[in-house]
Structures are given as C-alpha cells and as structure tokens.
Amino acid sequence: MFALSVAARLVAVCLLGWLAVVDVRARRLPDAGVLALALLFFADALAARMPLATVGVHVGVALAVYALCALLFALKLLGGGDAKLAAALCLWAGPALLLPMLTLISIAGALVGLTSLATSGMEPAAHRGALRALALFSGRRGVPYGVALAVGGGAAILLPAVLPFVFRH
Length: 169
Prior knowledge:
The protein has 169 residues and is an all-alpha fold. The protein has six helices and no strands.
C-alpha cells in the first residue's frame, strides 16, 4: 500500500506543477485539476489505510479553510481558483501540516509577489526565452498565487511520504 500512496502523491505533485504553469500563463486554475487533486487525497487515504475519523478531520480542516477563502474571495482579496486550491491542499495537510504548509505558501507567495511587482512593466509578447517566462509573472495581469500554493502544498503532500524512506536508509 505504501507504493500506491507514494504514487498518488507523485501524481498530485505533478498535477500541482501543471496547475502552477496554467496559472502563470492564463491566471486561471482549472476546476477539473483542483477537483482531481482533492480526489487524489481520498485515493491516498485509502491506499495508506487512513482511519475514517482522520479523513473526517482533514475534510473539516479543508472546509474551514474554504469558508475563510470564500470570504476573502467575496472581498476580492483572493481569486476563486486560489480559494478552491487552498482548500484542496488542506485536505492533504490536515491539522498536523497546516501551519508548516501555510508558512511555505507565505514565503513562496512573497517571492511570487515580488517577482510580479518587479516584472510589472514587462509585456510577455515583447520577449523571448527566459525573459518571456519571467514576463509571464507580470503583475499587470494579477499575481499567479497558484504558484505559491503549488510550492507549499507540494511540500506538504510529498515530504511525509519521502522523508521516512530517506531517513530509513
């Protein structure tokens, strides 16, 4: 069952990478991708034989975060896709990894925000190669916070499965 859990987590991290790229390019987080990420949590919970009560606690944390993020969305302080992605990531984090994940998201978010600010005068169509990739972060189009969510969430998803293996050998 451990291998299935690791496989689900690797797929989830790859999905987060794709969502981050889509967010940088289009400033959208597709609902289907966010839903797939949430469903992968339940597949992982089944593969890892997570107790139903623990799954319930993870769902409770995700619902609480979604309620807070929905309020931020209503106040136009957070995008709708970001709100849904944050809730899906909280399914994975649960109460134990919530604070570390939010800390990593905050640090990555500060870097994404500073990059967006620094590139706000750049137009992606006017550049090629690495400069074009950097210009895609331009704050003129909004901040692609899905990147920060993917970094912090990816760590919360992957590290619990990988670290025991690393320290066992």
